[in-house]
Amino acid sequence: MAALIKSGAEKFVKSGRFPKLARCATLARMGCVTFIYDMEGYADAQQIGMGVAHRLQKQRAHMNSPDGWGFIRPRPN
């Protein structure tokens, strides 16, 4: 990151950490209307790991119950 800042490719350290958000900010500064929908949580303070989010390697048993918020199924009316 230090090399990118020194060369002028990045102006701030946080811009390099979140390139998708930085891209929208740059386009907005140029006058474009921008929209980003962060479904994956890339810019979250505590990012969900790739194994949990995409590969289902680590199932969360406490969330997969009728009382847990992660239990997804049609419910009778």
Key features?
single chain, 77 residues, 0% strand, 2 domains, mainly alpha, 34% helix
Protein structure class:
mainly alpha
User: Number of DSSP strands?
Assistant: 0
Rg measurement, Å: 19 Å
The helix fraction, in percent, is 25-40%
The overall pLDDT, averaged over residues, is 71
Which regions are unreliable across 5 or more consecutive residues at pLDDT < 50?
Answer: none
Secondary structure tally, helices: 4
Summarize the structure.
By secondary structure, this protein is mainly α. It has helices spanning 2-7, 13-17, 19-29, 50-53. The chain has two domains: 1-36, no CATH class; 46-71, no CATH class.
Any overview of this molecule?
By secondary structure, the chain is mostly helical. The chain has 2 domains: 36 residues, no CATH class; 26 residues, no CATH class. The chain has 4 helices and no strands. The longest helix is centred in the N-terminal third of the chain and has 11 residues.
